[in-house]
Amino acid sequence: MKTKITIAITGLNNTDNPGPGVPVIRGIRESEAFDARIIGLAYENLEPGIYIPGIIDKTYQIPYPSAGSDELMQRIFQIHELEHIDVLIPNFDAELFTFIIGKERLAEKGIRTFLPTLQQFEEREKTNLPEYGEKYKIKVPNSKAITSYHDINNLRQEFDYPLLVKGKFYDAYLAYNPEQVINHFNKISAKWGLPVIIQEFVKGTEVNVIALGDGNGNTIGAVPMRKQYITDKGKAWGGITVSDQKMLDITTKLISETKWRGGMELEMIKTSQGDYYLIEINPRIPAWVYLAIGAGQNMPEALVQMALGKEVKPFTKYDIGKMFIRYSWDMIGDISQFEQLSINGELEL
Amino acid sequence: MKAEKKTIEFLIKNMLTKCSIKLMQREFSSDIFKIENIQLGYIKLKYDANEITINGIVEKIQQLGLDIIIDPEEKLIEEIKLAIFELIHEMNNASSIAKKSEYLVEKLNISYQRMSKLFSKHEKITLERYIILNKIEKIKELIDSNEYTLSEIAYLMDYSSVQYLSNQFKKETGFSVSEYKTLKIKPKFSIEELGKSKL
Q1: Fold entry, domain B5-68
Q2: Which CATH architecture has domain B72-193?
Q3: CB A210 within 8 A of CB A195
């Protein structure tokens, strides 16, 4: 018999830069273990996941973390009073800090999470990538955090063009000259704040691994994927599961050494010489998680099990050659739905 | 005699792969040289002027099958070749944040038309044909790796269909893809040789 459970989930922005909320929900909906009531937590009224039929039972608006951690937490508690949330799965990098430092407060109210520790979260930040690579003996590209135009003039001494300009949470653009760096710097700093990260552009095939660590050094699941089509924002629009033992070895070694807790995504570049460069670690389930589910590893379900304190057996296999392709789809809604969310801060479809 | 240390830098023609860097490092590893900076298409080294002349250094480079670039247009040709190498051999052509259509133009900061004209002026083949020959060599490598299906290779190398790739592969190599797979000794060309003759 399926366990009845209420799960609150963020990251419902299924745009061309998608959040992981909708595929995480799809994984939970397909679970044999849970009969879940899904509470969507939305920052914006037009996050598409809110309006997709059969995905969310009820959506609540929540304030951006930038409004203050306490304000966000109070809103979560308010929603909890109404919905009795069992598990909360945050899916945005920008909100993770708030939920990581607030996880005891959440637990006191009966809201369980399964998140990395603050130390795990902070040491893998993009600005710390060179130290991270050195500590865990992983090749990483040369990276530098910059905070002003002045720093851009000196980049030629340390980097060859083209180079990557990255936001501290999201966005990555390729720049072929200092003028383009300035453009991207302005765009990214306005959106995500400072610093902006300059990263060496390692040439090769972009490969990612989605993984789940149990917090004791064990890898519960890991699926490597090669990006097939990449958008101009660097996002995979299509990908395929691959057999790559070296990537899996890097992942299990890293989870073992860091005792990683929760979902993660390792973004790597495989060069033509067969070297792997770690370019980023996302401390959460990535937006392409549904590929892993399709390949036989339902990581959202496993994460919920672990959040509930249940023992989860590691996945031992996945299907190679499974492919995902994103698409856009026009949904028809009604202005009254938008109004309801906008005026009342909540919407039940 | 006291060593007379001098520094010299060269732009190098045909130095397109990491193997050629290793070759140069080996060639200039003796006591009379010290490599200060080396990268694809470029070397800066300190040498003992009492032991070797500049012409002697140039000869050593030429013996490796490489050459010195003096003409600025030749320098640009080498940069074009290097960018094509990066795009096709290192980035698998299509699957990258660096979009194939803009990589050459953005990296070299000149129009494709000018690039093409310059290339034809200095090389024995056109730029288009040079790109095709590079793609064919990369396709051979991808087939040998057994990592990709032929349809994926076609996509990565920007062919609209497997049939188009197969036809071009047969035309350029004389073998169909399946014949090529069965060959014990695979006919391959070094990247440095591409474009040196009308292959």
Answers
A1: Alpha-Beta Plaits (3.30.70)
A2: Orthogonal Bundle (1.10)
A3: no
Answer whether A113's CB lies under 8 Å from A307's CB: yes
Are A270 and A339 in the same domain? Answer: no
ipTM greater than 0.90: no
Q: Write out the residue range of the structural domain in which residue A28 sits.
A: 3-114+330-347
Nearest CA in chain A to B19: A273
pLDDT digits (tens, 9 = 90+) for A133-156: 999 999 999 999 999 988 998 898
Nearest to A205 among B95, B107, B155 (CB): B95
Sheet strands side by side (includes A276-282): A276-282, A261-270, A205-214, A219-230, A236-241, A323-325
Where helices occur in chain B by DSSP H, the ranges are 18-27, 54-63, 72-85, 100-108, 112-122, 127-145, 150-156, 162-173, 177-182
Residue B101 forms contact with A (CB below 8 Å): no
Q: Do B99 and A234 touch (CB under 8 A)?
A: no
DSSP letter for each residue of A57-105: SEEEE---GGG-HHHHHHHHHHHHHHH--SEEE---HHHHHHHHHTHHH
Q: Model pTM?
A: 0.83
Is B86 an 8 Å CB contact of chain A?
yes
**Residue pLDDT, tens place only, A267-285:** 999 998 889 999 999 999 9
Q: Which of A162, A177, A206 sits opposite B95 (nearest CB)?
A: A206
